[in-house]
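Protein entry
_____________
===
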Amino acid sequence: MCTAVCPKITKMDKAKIQAVTTAIFLETRKSRKDGLCPVKLRVTYKRKRCYYNMRDETGETILLSKTDYAKVMKENPKEAYKNLSIH
């Protein structure tokens, strides 16, 4: 690495580069005929992404409509959506 052009990479910078990030999202590209879409978890590590289906207690894939997903992911979901909370 050229130190004249590039600053030295500190240990903190290396930790940021190798950090794992996660995100929960609604996979709208694979919606079913009834309008429900699977909820997925995206894990990114070293710029490589892996996707996992979110499942409930019975092992079934969690399927939500776009409006239900928006209601569930609110900071304070209403009573009907609290049991579905996936934060």
Summary: The beta strands are 20-26, 37-45, 48-53, 63-64. The mean pLDDT is 77.
